[in-house]
Amino acid sequence: MNKLTTLFLGVLLAFACNPKTESTSEVEMDHSQHMAPADSTQQKPKSPKTSAMAMVSGNHIHIDYSSPSVRGRQIFGGLVAFGEVWSTGAHKATSIQFEKPVIIQGKEIPAGKYGFFTIPGQTEWTLILNQVWDMHLADDYDSAKDVIRVQVNPETLLETVESLTYTVEETAPGTAKISVAWDKTKVSFEAKNK
Q1: What is the pTM of this model?
Q2: What confidence tens digit (pLDDT) does each residue in 71-105 have?
Q3: Would you list the DSSP string of the chain?
Q4: Cβ neighbours of residue 75 under 8 Å, at least 6 residues apart?
Q5: pLDDT tens, 3-60?
């Protein structure tokens, strides 16, 4: 071998034998250049999770639901079909929990957590408490597990309620009025402490 070839091989071996100072797995990658800032571009959910609750003469009543908005859509008889079971919210089924037993239309409802469903109608709604509260929308709804069904007449509102809203208010000692309003419709029922 001539001296030039020997020198070239020596330099090549020197680089090959030295440990690498950086590798993709060892270098901490900086992703800040291609990640969107958390505060400026993250969209708020269109149907945020929320809750409504009240203490009614020592009985804590708590409702968990996801609150969709009207956003210019036809709600009842459009997005929400008449005559079909509705989870009365978005995403997961709405749940209602009574810390103590209540009486609804003369029937005792034990303390516990229930799925709250409705069947909207043009002139009458069916309000439903079901034993199963943990489900996606009304996908696994089973009427055989209904605890109670209540028939109510919907109230037409003068002002639009943009986001679906539940309220729990004590109207008399030990009596709660539980309401849900959306668009220009509101339905309510009473629950009395046992």
Answers
A1: 0.76
A2: 999 999 999 999 999 999 998 999 999 999 999 99
A3: --HHHHHHHHHHHHHHHSPPS--TTTSPP--TTTSPPHHHHPPPPSS-EEEEEEEETTEEEEEEEE--B-TT--TBTTTB-TTS-B-SSSSBPEEEEESS-EEETTEEE-SEEEEEEEE--SS-EEEEEES---SBTTTT--GGGEEEEEEEPPEEEEEEEEEEEEEEEEEETTEEEEEEEEEEEEEEEEEEE-
A4: 182, 183, 185
A5: 545 554 454 445 455 544 444 434 444 444 434 445 545 677 788 999 999 999 999 9
Hunting for tokens 């908005």 — which residue is that? Answer: 69
Please give the span between the terminal C-alpha atoms of the chain, in angstroms, as a whole number: 103
